[in-house]
Design brief:
This protein has a single domain, classed as Roll (Pnp Oxidase, Chain A). The strands form three sheets. It has a seven-stranded antiparallel β-sheet with strand order 3-2-6-9-10-5-4. It has a three-stranded antiparallel β-sheet with strand order 1-11-12, with no helix packed on it. It contains three helices and twelve strands; from the N terminus they run βββββαβααββββββ. A hairpin with a 2-residue loop joins β4 and β5. The longest helix is centred in the N-terminal third of the chain and has 9 residues. By secondary structure, the chain is mainly beta. The structure holds flavin mononucleotide.
Length: 191
């Protein structure tokens, strides 16, 4: 079987989409959360991440006002809360209260963090790139808060203890089996 060309060019075939919870706050101090699948690490020095926020999303204006946001990594145990924050608008409700999530006070930025997520990053907005119906918001990570329970004795991340959530098309997926370490091809021949 060969490849066929998909009639309409689309970004949807790209896989997978790491699901993150982006936290922000309005001018009255009401916190909000938007579930984002279009997310990526961008650079390691300075450490940056990017999230694509739809131009019609309530959260976009909040983030542009404070010029910062939280990136919180949900686990499979938080799947319901992640789906909820991607199904309701913070225009009408307080998603922290409605989803039973707890505000964690940030150290540097104004946007709140989510206590239940094992990893939360404080990000300062350094670029907003307009791309049609979404803006790519690039944030410089200025602080990272990590649950000790997913660290090993040396303080490094123990990946076997993390249960991340990915999205692909309109489905949620978990990570499959661990395959290899990076650069294994330097020592192992091509099969
Ligand atoms: C799994 C999932 C992934 C999503 N990814 C994005 C995304 O990458 N960008 C975006 O703007 N909205 C995305 N959404 C939709 C928003 O989370 C949703 O419209 C949300 O209600 C907007 O919240 P707000 O109105 O409080 O800003 C996603 C929703 C789900 C369930």
């Amino acid at each position: 079987m060969g490849k066929v060309e998909i009639r309409q060019p689309t970004s949807r075939f790209f896989f997978p989409w790491p699901v993150v919870l982006v936290s922000c706050v309005d001018e009255n101090g009401k916190p909000n959360i938007i579930t984002v699948g279009a997310s990526s690490i961008c650079s390691s020095n300075p450490p940056t991440v990017g999230v694509a926020i739809g131009t019609a999303q309530y959260s976009l204006g909040l983030i542009k006002r404070t010029r910062d946001f939280g990136v919180n990594l949900p686990t499979q145990e938080l799947l319901w809360q992640a789906d909820f924050c991607g199904s309701q608008s913070g225009r009408n409700i307080n998603k922290f209260e409605a989803a039973g999530l707890t505000v964690q006070q940030p150290k540097i930025i104004e946007s709140p963090l989510i206590a239940e997520c094992p990893v939360s990053m404080e990000c300062k907005l350094i670029h907003a790139i307009s791309l049609g119906n979404h803006e790519w918001l690039i944030g410089e990570i200025v602080a990272v808060h990590c649950d000790e329970a997913i660290l090993d004795q040396r303080g490094e991340l123990d990946t076997s203890k993390v249960h991340p959530v990915f999205s692909y098309w309109a489905e949620y997926w978990s990570v499959g089996q661990r395959l290899k370490d990076w650069h294994f091809s330097r020592t192992e021949p091509k099969p």
